[in-house]
Design brief:
heterodimer, A: about 170 residues, mainly alpha, 8 helices, B: about 200 residues, 2 domains, disordered N terminus
Chain lengths: ~170, ~200
């Protein structure tokens, strides 16, 4: 039940795509409820990345960890429910909504906050591991360059980084 | 699964507007969910719903994308729900959401079970440390992309800086995002353009 509420809440505020969920899930699931360790949380996001479909599917992992199969179903549905309802309702009022300057203003305010949240999420995840290992820091920089400068598909970057990590360890 | 119906002319198909069967809707969404990664799903969805099957006109689809941008939730999921609702109402929207999620859910469930059972194997330690680095890079890349398209004016940069400051002081992210939205709705209303 708590799983349902937490994930519905997260699903209601992930403006701007799945990655925005990271700080929210971290706050609720790792810091507040302690359902996952920081490491498991980061791994869950990496797994969500190599799975086809939305990144938000990482919710399945959290749900499974907390309550097994039923938890996985509940968390997954809960996280997509708010935007599902909003989309259907808004689809009827689309022309009016598009012309509404308040809605545009709201989004103009939300997106800078989203950028800040993302930077914060990267800092938190990075602080836990990368800080202590310059090779991983280098790997992260290389991955960032590939993503931003050469627009390499995220799936390949994640798989490549996993391989690189494996080789570094041996 | 229904293959591409032999419509000689997409416009003629639109004019007739036969209701799309829920089964074909589900088939297409299963495909989108199984072959698209993250934002890549939008591309697959567009190809299937607009280009191949002519279920929607390009402008209608673009409207759906604009809507998806405005609402919370992954853009591809919102867009798929929009397509389903446009074609078959509530039933279509529900079928689209579930079909889209089933492949990802099944794979993620499998990975979760494997991870919780074998994740502690020492040989895999390095892999996860590498993945860790990739996730940091991914998040920063998204921040860069969203930032480039939104931090265009001084007030927005200031808002982002303030939000980051508050986040460093452990403010609740949800409150922060909604507060910034309210500030935007009050202060950042776009000036009316000649062509809306």
């Amino acid at each position: 039940m708590r799983l349902l509420l937490v994930f519905a809440k997260i699903g209601a505020v992930v403006f701007g795509g799945g990655f925005v969920m990271i700080p929210f899930i971290q706050r609720e699931v790792v810091q507040h409820y302690g359902w996952l360790t920081q490491q498991q949380f980061v791994d869950a996001i990496a797994l969500g990345q190599i799975t086809p479909g939305p990144i938000l599917i990482s919710a399945t992992f959290v749900g499974y960890k907390v309550q097994g199969m039923a938890g996985a179903v509940v968390a997954t549905l809960a996280v997509f429910l708010p935007s599902f309802l909003m989309t259907v309702v808004a689809a009827r009022h689309l022309p009016r909504l598009r012309r509404n300057p308040r809605a545009a203003g709201f989004l103009r305010g939300v997106l800078p906050a989203v950028v800040a949240m993302l930077v914060m999420a990267a800092l938190t995840i990075g602080r836990a591991t990368l800080w202590f290992d310059w090779r991983l820091l280098l790997l992260a920089c290389a991955a960032l360059a590939l993503l931003v400068r050469w627009k390499v598909d995220a799936v390949y970057v994640v798989i490549g980084a996993g391989l690189a990590g494996f080789l570094l360890e041996h | 699964m229904s293959r591409h119906e032999d419509e000689p002319d997409a416009a003629a198909a639109m004019a007739r507007r036969q209701p799309v069967r829920l089964r074909s809707l589900a088939g297409v969404m299963l495909k989108v969910g199984a072959t698209g990664f993250g934002m890549g799903m939008v591309g697959v969805l567009q190809q299937e719903a607009v280009t191949r099957r002519a279920w929607l006109r390009q402008e209608e689809f673009a409207d759906g994308l604009a809507l998806a941008n405005l609402l919370p939730g992954p853009i591809a999921v919102d867009a798929a729900v929009y397509v389903g609702y446009k074609l078959r109402g509530w039933a279509g929207a529900t079928v689209c959401l579930l079909a889209l999620l089933i492949p990802a859910f099944a794979i993620m469930l499998g990975l979760s079970i494997a991870y919780l059972r074998y994740g502690q194997v020492p040989q895999l330690h390095g892999v996860f440390r590498g993945l860790n680095a990739a996730v940091v890079a991914l998040v920063l890349a998204v921040a860069y992309r969203v930032g480039k398209s939104t931090l265009k004016s001084a007030p927005q940069v200031a808002l982002a800086a303030m939000a980051l400051g508050a986040a460093l002081l452990h403010a609740d992210p949800m409150t922060l995002v909604l507060a910034c939205g309210v500030i935007g709705a009050l202060l950042l209303i776009p000036r009316p353009k000649v062509t809306p």
